[in-house]
Amino acid sequence: MASLARLANRLSLRTMSSSAIPSVQKVVLIRETGGPEVIRYEEDFPVPKISENELLIKNSYAGVNFIEAYFRKGIYPSEKPYVLGREAVGTVVAKGEKSGDKFEIGDKVAYLSPGTFAQYTKYPSNGKVIKLPQDISKEKLITTAASLVQGLTALTFIDEAYSVKKGDYILVYAAAGGVGLILDQLLKKRGARTIAVASTDEKLQLAKEYGAEFLINSSKEDIVERVNEITNGQGVEAAFDSVGKDTFETTLQALKRKGTFVSYGNASGPVPPVPLNKLVPKNIKLVRPQVFGYITADDEWEHYSSELVRLIDSGELKIKVFKVYPLKDYRQATEELEGRKTTGKLVLEIPE
Length: 352
Known about the structure:
- It comes from Kluyveromyces marxianus.
- By secondary structure, the protein is of the alpha/beta class.
- The protein is built from nine helices and 16 strands.
- It is 30% helix and 27% strand.
- The strands form three sheets. Strands 3, 5, 6, 7, 8, 15 and 16 form a seven-stranded mixed sheet that branches.
- The protein is globular, with a radius of gyration of 21 Å.
């Protein structure tokens, strides 16, 4: 039985690159839950072994998302050790015998997967992967790494969590963050009237540059009062709330009758259990979506990923990269992100 297993393993990897793939790699992971102090940069973590249906991707850049903090804090459960990361760009360096002919060794790719804060990630050949041009520039690689999760989040949410229409008043929290700046642009393109919420005037000006029409400084203005002023007391058709616990009641008050509450983040902590009768007075629709639930089917992935690439390539959508950090400095990156010291997207450069 053991000899058969070894033979199967050799057969599954016979299309591997001739260049040597190391047995260990550099990664960022957690072995316990907690604050930023539990983040570990390790240089001797095993390189994953691929099956006959998988690709091995050598990562170049990985995007930083707030969801990593949710896993680190234990808001979302995970097995330990847990390599962080959700998206990356890189190069296919090995493929299993039954991984098909869609991808070849040497292909540049962008993909969605857990465990991308690492030099190598294994991934199903039929997974959420985009083939990139072979001559893609370093700048475009970084932009691509910065766009996948947040760009697809914004695109799917304005279609499916709430189908935005021309003239809708839409409340956007963290409007100068990665998702926020993309929402500002897409909502303007749809003809909606975006009300941007951020904690500083500088962030609000950035949101305005990216398409927001109205601005609310949450550190010195009453959000509900300002929303009522802007909408003549009607409230907003929908709110995209990534803050969570601290803004839940405020968002309920800011919505108009039959409004839609899109709650998609826990930046201030998870929203406590909500009695359904809280939604009754204004017939509120409450949704708690995540992007991966909208791109599960192949046709969904093809539709939204193609549209994201088109928007970026055409210049209709700008991706603002705040800073590129070395992989070993992820702790600094997330401390700045969680401390609300950043705008746009953070990216990690993976060491060679």
